[in-house]
Write a structure and sequence with these properties.
31% of the residues lie in helices and 21% in strands. With 198 residues, the chain is α+β, with helices and mostly antiparallel strands. It has a single domain, classed as Glutaredoxin (3-Layer(aba) Sandwich).
Length: 198
C-alpha cells in the first residue's frame, strides 16, 4: 500500500512539473543567468535575432561531451543567420563537482565555445523550460521581442557518431523557420544524462 501511495505522489508531482513547463507555441519568459565571462546574459539581449537555440548541457555527461563539437558547429552555422546558441548548465555542482562554475570556465576555454555558457544557479530556469536531460534543446523564434517555443528535443538521432546521424532535428527546425515554413517535427525525445538536482 505504501508503494502505491508513493508512486501516486510521484506521478502527481511529475504531472505538476510538466504542467508548469513550456509547451510548443508558448511564449518564453526572459531570464538572467551568469556566463563564464562573469557577465549576465538574458534573452532580451537578443532582440535583433530571428530566434535562439537554447541547449541545456554540462561538463560531466558523456552525451553532452559527445555533442560539444556539434553544438559549436550549430552556433557557427546559424548565428550569422539569426539563430545563435545559448548553452545552460542546469546541474547542482555539489552533486557533480565537474559541473562547477570554475570548471565551466575551463571547459569553455578548452573547447573554444563560441556561445555563452550560463549557469542555472537557482535551478529554476531548466524547470521552467521542462528540461530533463543534458543535452536538451529548445528552439525559440523571436518576433518583436517575443520569444516563442518552436522545437523541443534532441540535436540529431546519433549521439555516438555525428557522421552516422541521418536525422538532424535542430538543423531541420531552424532551416524551416528561416524559410518561414512549418517545422515538420516539433518534438523529439532528448537522449542524455538526467539533470542533477537536490
Amino acid at each position: 500500500m505504501k508503494k502505491i501511495i508513493i508512486l501516486g505522489l510521484f506521478i502527481l508531482a511529475t504531472i505538476g512539473v510538466n504542467a508548469q513547463s513550456y509547451q510548443i507555441g508558448d511564449k518564453v519568459a526572459d531570464f538572467k543567468l551568469k556566463n563564464v565571462d562573469g557577465k549576465y546574459v538574458s534573452l532580451s539581449d537578443y532582440k535583433d535575432t530571428k530566434g535562439i537555440i537554447v541547449i541545456f548541457t554540462c561538463n560531466h555527461c558523456p552525451f553532452s561531451v559527445a555533442y560539444e563539437d556539434r553544438i559549436i558547429k550549430l552556433d557557427k552555422k546559424y548565428k550569422t543567420k539569426g539563430f545563435p546558441v545559448i548553452a545552460i548548465n542546469p546541474n547542482d555542482p555539489e552533486l557533480y563537482a565537474s559541473d562547477s562554475f570554475e570548471n565551466m570556465i575551463k571547459r569553455a576555454d578548452e573547447k573554444g565555445f563560441t556561445f555563452p555558457y550560463l549557469i542555472d544557479e537557482k535551478q529554476d530556469v531548466y524547470k521552467r523550460f521542462g528540461a530533463t536531460k543534458t543535452p536538451h534543446v529548445f528552439i525559440l523564434s523571436t518576433k518583436k521581442g517575443v520569444n516563442k517555443l518552436e522545437y523541443i528535443g534532441a540535436i540529431d538521432n546519433n549521439y555516438k557518431n555525428a557522421e552516422q546521424a541521418d536525422k538532424h532535428y535542430v538543423d531541420d527546425a531552424v532551416n524551416a523557420l528561416l524559410q518561414n515554413k512549418k517545422i515538420a517535427v516539433t518534438t523529439t525525445k532528448a537522449i542524455g544524462c538526467s539533470i542533477k538536482s537536490k
